[in-house]
Each structure stands twice: as C-alpha cells, then as structure tokens.
Amino acid sequence: MKQQIEEILTKYVDTYGFVSTIEYQETRSSLHKDDMYDEYSFLDEYKTIITLGLSYPSESLKWGKKGTGLLSKYSYGTDYHKVFSEKLDSVTKELNKLEIKTHSSVDTYKIDERWASHLAHMGFLGRNQFLINKTYGGYLYLATILIDQDIDKNIQLLDTCGTCTKCVDACPTNALDGEFIRERCISETTQSKKIFNKDEISQLKTMVYGCDICQKVCPKNNGINYTHNTEFLPTGIESVNLIDVLKMSNREYMDIYRNNASSWKGATLIKRNALCLLGNQKVYEAVDEIKKSLEKYKDVLWYNNVALEVLKMLERK
Ligand code: B12
Ligand code: SF4
Ligand code: SF4
User: What is the DSSP string of 105-124?
Assistant: First the structure.
C-alpha cells in the first residue's frame, strides 16, 4: 500500500512525508496550548498525515524604481492555494480509487503544516520559522492529506541551524528574537487590518505585501532555484505601481490580482500598504491621489489613520 501511495504522490508533488496522527497530536499538544491549532478531534477518523511540498523559484525581482512596490516571492505567479488544490484533488481521486479515505487542505485547515512536515521528516524547522527541505530549502509551499491507513514514516537524518543566527540578525523588527514574535513580523503587518503606529508605517519601504528577508539570508537556501513549477514564475503584476493601485476600483484590482496569493484580504489592504511605501519613498506627486482615496475610504479606520499620517509625511517637505 505504501508503495502505491508513494507512486501517486511522486507524480504530483516535489516532496512528501508521513506522520501518524497520534504522534502529531501528542507532540504538538505538549508544545503548544490554546492556539489556533489546539483542537484535534477531527483527526480521530484518520491514522496518517501525508505532508506535501511544492517548490517555488527563489529568484527575486529587483526593486529599483521609486513609486513601485514588490510582492513577496511566495506570491509570484498563480496563487499557490489554487495550484496546490488542483494537485491535491488529483492525488485524492487516485487514493480514493484505492479505497483510502482522505481529507486534503492547503494553508487553511486545522493543521499546523510546518510542525506536521517536520515530524514527517520532510525538513527541519529553522530559526526563521521555515520548514527547510534538503533539496528545496525554504522555497516550499506546504499542504496535507489525512488518510485512514497506517503508513510508516521515511526516517531521514534532519539538518539543524547549528550556530547560525543570520535570519535572527537580519530581521529588521527583531521578530525572531528568542521565539517568533508574530506582532513584530512585517509579513503579519502587511496582512493586518489594524491601526498602524508610526514605526509600522516606517517598516514598509519596498515590499507592498509580505517580507522575504529571513528567507533570503538563510545559507540553507544558497544555490537553490527550482523553476519547474512554472505557475509560480512572475507574470509582471508583482511589481506594483503604487499610484496606479490607489486609483483602481476594487473590481479593476481583482481583475488583475484575483489569481494572486496577495489578494486574499482585498484591494483596500494593498492600497493601505501602498500608502506606507509612498510616504517612505517620498513620492510627493501622490498627495492628490491619497486625498481622493481618503475620501473614498473615509469609513475604514485602519486606512484613514495611515493615509493621514502619510499625508503629513509628504506635506512636511
Ligand atoms: C498564520 C501564518 C502566518 C503568520 C504567522 C507566522 C508564524 N511564524 O507563526 C504570518 C502572517 C506572520 C505568516 C508569515 C509568513 N508565512 Co505563513 N503561515 C501561517 C499559517 C496559516 C499558520 C502558522 C501558525 O500559526 N502555526 C502555528 C504556530 C503555533 O506556530 P509557531 O508559533 O510559529 O510555532 C512553530 C515553531 O515555533 C516550532 N516550535 C515551537 N516549539 C518548538 C520546539 C522544538 C523542539 C522545535 C524543533 C520547534 C518548535 O513549531 C511550530 C511549528 O509551526 C501557515 C499554514 C498552516 N496552516 O500551518 C502558513 C505558513 C507557515 N506560512 C508560510 C509562508 C511562506 C510565510 C511567509 C514566508 C510569507 C511571506 N513571504 O511573507 C512569512 C514568513 C514569516 C516567518 N518567518 O514565519 C508557509 C511556510 C512554508 C515553509 N516552507 O515553511 C506556510 C506553511 C503556508 C504554506 N501552506 O505553505 N504566516
Ligand atoms: S518575514 Fe521579515 S519581519 Fe517577519 S520574521 Fe522574517 S525577516 Fe522578520
Ligand atoms: S539563517 Fe541560519 S539560523 Fe536562520 S534558519 Fe537559516 S540556517 Fe537557521
């Protein structure tokens, strides 16, 4: 049975692993309490978690032009949720033909995907929080399939960070000091609909969505650049003209970004991030457009607060 399952997995994903639901539940519940994954009853019907990885290219677009902002690498090309979901559908159809009961998910379900992947020996957990695979480094999207069969894990010797602290030292907001401090992470900031303080505004300089720093500096990623999953190559929309995005209606924005992973929280969030970049890049010609957008989003507190602060920055010249 294991061999049949592995033959199916090899057809659709770059790497995979197996861990028993019991090991996942026991180890995780002893490490983490009262967080968003601290509920395990859904696992009762299943015996094994298959963890799956799809690699994405590591090459970054260069930021070079005032008035623009980049999306982070994990949102280049087509939304990985869509690409992965299609692959998961194909895998589960084939598993179901073998009379295996399945439940697949990517990113959204009740499973801590990095912890499961680490237990399944698909890679080790780095200080930058990434699941780091021997072949693909941290450039790996993760997903899981629960199955009602016992499958032994493929045991591998796992790497470690050793004495390296490059990501901890490079993180501009000290989000990796000691443990991961989510509220400090710029990636979190770019995805939060909250009132920003001046510090948070000042952190968004060239990236309009996400943050790649702790992944870029990691030596375990050196020389890794797999481009065979061509869906994840940039298509041209990853370099965002900041004034143009402010001018867009929600519909115009969605027509362009619907299939991109950065759009999941909507146009207003990206526009709010664009405001920060416009302020920090001192794009003075944006003032009129910011004022218009302020009128449009007058009821959105977390937008207003940034727009007013950025106007002060640009009008202070
Ligand atoms: C919420 C979330 C976020 C939040 C919080 C991230 C975080 N570090 O917790 C925010 C918005 C900040 C975020 C940012 C990013 N994310 Co995110 N995110 C998630 C999500 C949905 C849940 C993560 C989570 O809350 N885990 C649970 C908490 C408890 O984890 P934790 O506190 O970090 O604890 C971990 C470690 O501390 C470790 N640990 C704790 N104790 C111990 C003890 C020992 C002995 C060991 C060894 C380890 C260990 O184990 C835990 C395992 O997760 C997952 C998808 C999923 N369903 O799992 C994607 C996911 C983790 N994100 C992903 C990505 C790509 C990113 C970004 C790179 C995106 C970007 N470019 O901006 C950044 C990276 C930031 C970073 N350095 O982690 C990928 C990671 C892929 C990989 N190879 O690791 C995932 C798996 C999505 C996916 N399906 O591919 N993310
Ligand atoms: S994603 Fe950026 S802000 Fe978040 S931990 Fe990594 S380097 Fe720090
Ligand atoms: S940069 Fe160094 S410390 Fe950070 S995850 Fe990579 S190897 Fe580990």
Answer: ESSSSS--HHHHHHHTTS-E
